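Morning!

This is the sequence you dropped in the shared folder:
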Amino acid sequence: MATQTRAEGFPDAFQKQAGEPRYVARQPILDQHGKAHGYELLFWNGREPIIQDNSDKAARSMLDKTVAYGLEQLACGLPAFVRCTADLLTGQWVEVLPAHLTVLELPANTEPTPILLAACAKLKEEGFRLAVIDYAGQPESGALVELADYIKIDLAAVDADQRQKLLRQLHGSAAYLVATHVETQGEYGQASSEGFDLFQGYYFCRPEPVESHRIPGNRLIHLEILDDLQNDPIDLHRMSQLVMCDASLTYRLLRLVNSPVCAIRQEVTSIQSALMLVGEATFRRIAMLAIASDFNSDQPAEILRMAFVRGRFCEQAANLCGLASSEQYLIGMVSLFPAMLRILIEDLVHLLPLRHEAIDALLGKGNPEGVLLQWIVCAEYGDWAGCNAIVRANNLDREQLIWLHAQAVAWADAALKSNA
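The structure's back. Tokens below.
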């Protein structure tokens, strides 16, 4: 079984408790510059999204788990968007959450009763923020819209003409206008030109490939390093010379080696000593982190965060599937290299030193080497049915995957801080 190291912020919240939410996905909300503004948190109880169950028990359970996970860790200290019902707000259940970090989301079709409006006003006075989601101009939502700090409009449900009408109606509002279900660069460009402030969706993982795009020379050195990292043992002298061809990569690598990610007590000042002190397996991992960081220098940082999570999860879960952990780490990380480098995955895989099975996994051909990557992609989207189908088809331990995913998220956040 893969080594499990508990990560700060994700202690006992993932213990098996029947009927309670045991899984959380976080979906980034980005600004015009590709910087994370906050994260929407989606909870699951093993059967369905928890917020679909309007019982007091489900509401309490969801909030208790939010506290247990640690809202600040889940959202990296940024605003955490948590879906709510009217009962959650009027019953004061949400007051267990840290007000300064929490955005309370209410559907636009929620009936704005005097009790609910009074509760919303009180919560805002306490420091909570309010979001109205799936806004489509519903007349009954007017009072909530006036209180809202964020107004979310679903691009998949409201066409361009309707959005123009809504945006005219909202002109002068102090609320952030958030476009949701933004899945392509074209949709992002359209929403941005229409005047939206924030964007939720995975468009940033799909930058439009640049025609006739050539990988810069220093990036080709990185690919050569990746090739050498597959050797066992690593040629210490050659690896040191390759890494030192790029000052930026050398700096990033030494920063990571001397960070809590490696947890070594002796300061490292050279690539050769780094390799000898941390060992080849750890060196391969942190070299990949450094290379990915360099690849992503011109793209939103959220792509890098997701690559770190994918790589770490696939590495840690590899033993559950009888797969090689080092190759799985590579597959997880490389899956987002096309977004970083703005080239097609079909063009990239032939430049990389990968087995045919690993290439097929990256191309989504449904082979065993791609199972963990498929699962983590479903988890990113909050596609619980997809996660379950993969678990059943491959006889995997769902609870173990959930735990390892949480660990990967915490590890990636720590790695990003060390790499800043």
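Headline: The longest strand covers residues 36-44.

More detail when I'm at my desk.
O.
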